[in-house]
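From the shared-data thread, chain only:
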Amino acid sequence: MQANIKEGSTVVTDGWRGYSGVSQLGYRHQPILGESVGEEELLPRVHRVATLLKRWLLGTHQGGIDTVGHLDEYLDEFTFRFNRRSSTSRGKLFYRLMQQVVEISPRREGASGTTAGRH
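Structure, as tokens:
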């Protein structure tokens, strides 16, 4: 957390006890307890993205995904699509995809079948 969030920032979390030390790290901690608000009101953007991801995985892949070997790739594709869902220039999607293909270094398969050198 300290490497990614500026000290003094307000950190909004659910009521999990693991976040109890956030205030001692120099953050303003704002826990939102699930019992005090409805599920959709508790971190609504997180719930929206999680719901869309679940629907996308079950719809596109019919629930038959290999989460052990390919979850990173599925999440990368979902992120790519989610970030471009309201793009006004849909014709540039293929162009941007090809641009990323050229700019990202290739990955090599390790001996155990896992991807090595992932950034």
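The mean pLDDT is 77.
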